[in-house]
Structure formats: C-alpha cells, structure tokens
Amino acid sequence: MNHNILPLRTGVGIAILNSQNKVFVGKRKDNPFDKWQMPQGGVDSDEPLLQAMKRELLEETSIKNIKVLKELDQWLEYELPENLIGKIWKGKYRGQRQKWFIVKFLGDDNEINIKTKNAEFMEWKWIDVNLLPDLIVIFKKHVYEKVLIELKKIIS
Q1: What is the dotted CATH code of the domain comprising 3-155?
Q2: What local confidence, expressed as pLDDT, does residue 1 receive?
Q3: Which helix (H) or strand (E) holds 24?
Q4: The pTM is what?
C-alpha cells in the first residue's frame, strides 16, 4: 500500500511550563519504552486551534489554570514509522501536522490528574526543557527540537 497518499492528521501540541520553568511530560500507556511526551491531540473539524489545545489539555492532564504564552508560527509535522502506519488512528493518517502552544501552568500540582476518562498517560513529571529531545520517540524528535528552541526564547 502506498502510504504517501494518506493525509496528515491535524493536531495540537502543548508545552506546559511550571513556575520553575520545568516542562510537563507524561509516559504514554501504549508505549512500553522509557519515552515521555508533552500533551498533544487531534483537532475536531471546525474546532478553533486554541479551543482544541485547551480541550486536549483538560482531557489528558485535567489542567485548566493556564496562561497562553505563545502559539508557534509554523506548523510542525512528523511522519509515522512504517511499522505504525495502519495501527494508529485506524490507519487513516501517515503522520501529524501540529500547531504547538507554549503555556504557563498557574495552578499547583494537585490540579494535575492523568487518570482521566480516556487516560493516555500512566505517569507524569516536570523536567528540564533541555531533556525534551532525548525523551521523545525518535520520529518526533525534530518536532521537539523546534519546540525547544521556542521554549528557550521564553525562559532565557
């Protein structure tokens, strides 16, 4: 099957900074390796990107108390590795085209609850932003490197 004809899924990604400028990462339930990621998810049709970001954040982390610091100008894209095409998103997409947001978390850690209705993470932690590219699955690494550049502009 020619996977190049499959479209990219439109999504959002969220880099959440706490008061110490550490970034939130979660360990996915469906990922057996020691890989962590920032919250991300699909955009419903006709859903504004900002609304999609807030919905995904709530669905994955229960976080509501945020201030949006930046919406990245460019769209970031990644392609799934061959062995995952057809397994993820019911085989409808070959990867994702994401609009990333950087937000400041204004609540305290008690607000964070990853045991949500359709939980995606089995654990979470705050990490130094510089660790991001090393914790993500390899096929999303270039996306995280670009997000990291933007994060550093904000926290420097």
Answers
A1: 3.90.79.10
A2: 56
A3: strand 23-28
A4: 0.94
